Amino acid sequence: QCPGLEPLCLDLADWDATEAAVAAAGPFELLVNNAAVAVLQPFLEVTREALQRSLDVNFGAVLHVSQIVARQMIAQGVPGAIVNVSSQASQRALRDHAVYCSTKSALDMLSKVMAMELGPHKIRVNTVNPTVVMTDMGRINWSDPQKSAAMINRIPLGKFAEVDDVVNSVLFLLSDKSAMTTGSSLMVDGGFLVS
């Protein structure tokens, strides 16, 4: 659907392999960090493995890939934009999501610090924070009406997000139409956080 894009298949927890592949793929003007894992466990049952995997992907990979790309943007001397896909879970506690909520909160704060430090280089950094998104995985995990009812009942618009809802928000934040927006979180949650 997007000519000219070349996907890279990487284990983002492997910093050396990521550095080599991403550095060779540039130069960049735009970056969307969208990789994430959600290992759901009750707080008292969180394992070290689940914590480490979530930190590596949801936080560490974003930090590392953003460093590589931002360095290239600075070296080119051109403006850039980075959008990190976070979650409504960064701002609302959800049962069995202790690690997921925490890594997404950390991602929101990382994005603010990035915005502050990269702004003088004309690189904008924002987050998009969606509710449940009806991807293939989202449909599998949330198609049970009994499970989804409690969440949907807290969303004033009465539905989960579709992929295009998130994509359109990301495109806005990458575009010049948001040229004065940095360090912000765009909620794509149907009003979940106001309910």
TrEMBL record:
Pfam families: adh_short_C2. The keyword Chloroplast does not apply. The keyword Cell division does not apply. One of its GO terms (molecular function) is L-xylulose reductase (NADPH) activity. This is DER reductase. The lineage of its organism: Eukaryota, Metazoa, Chordata, Craniata, Vertebrata. Homotetramer. PANTHER family: D-ERYTHRULOSE REDUCTASE (PTHR44252), D-ERYTHRULOSE REDUCTASE-RELATED (PTHR44252:SF3). GO terms for biological process: glucose metabolic process; xylulose metabolic process. Belongs to the short-chain dehydrogenases/reductases (SDR) family. It comes from the Eukaryota. InterPro entries: L-xylulose/Carbonyl_redctase (IPR051737), NAD(P)-bd_dom_sf (IPR036291), Sc_DH/Rdtase_CS (IPR020904), SDR_fam (IPR002347). Keywords: NADP, Oxidoreductase.
